[in-house]
Amino acid sequence: MFLNRTPLEIILTIPAILIGFTLHEYAHALVADRLGDKTPRFQGRLTLNPFVHIDIMGFVMILLVGFGWAKPVQTNPSSYKHYYKDDLKVSIAGPIANLIVAFVATVLFAIINRLFSSTDSSNQLITIVYTMLVYTAQINCMLFILNLIPIPGFDGFHILRDLFPKFFYKIADPMQRFQLIIFVILAVVPVYQNMSVLSLIIGPSTSALMSFFSLITSFI
Fold first, then answer.
1. Which of 47, 77, 143, 184 is the least buried, fewest Cβ under 10 Å from its Cβ?
2. CA angle at residue 47 from 42 to 51, to 5 degrees?
């Protein structure tokens, strides 16, 4: 989905990535802060400044291969009144933020498309805006899906812990011990038509989510 792009298209994905990573991590920090955990505030993560949240390697990865990561927000679940329930809210806040951004981008695309549908389609500015909105929707859909996968390093792993703590603690140690190996196998090793497990999950799921949003906004 993000491969085989021109240099201009890669540049146009940068705002989408910055928005997706920043709002994802800010959502984690904000919800944790509201639930009584001041760790993100003390560490300066309660901000919309993208440079605070960007991890250089994760940023480069998403530019090159289509998925990456930001600096994770550190939290202290012992500060919550309801340990698992509140931690679940914090864990899911990031993916939900990405889902909202993707939907808003799709709505804006539909509105602009309707407003300018009868004008010169070769207008470069409109084309650039269209492209940026499409990438914003795609990348945020991808971040939503990726972060729900229950592997170490992603929100889905914490969500698994909060929903099924007994099962989680049976598998947590070996998964965390081999988390790099697990990630490399899932992200790099081809299993079907030169596609990795993550690609097989993220690609079709992102396309389906984009199609669903497009269907909703088609009534605008």
1. 184
2. 105
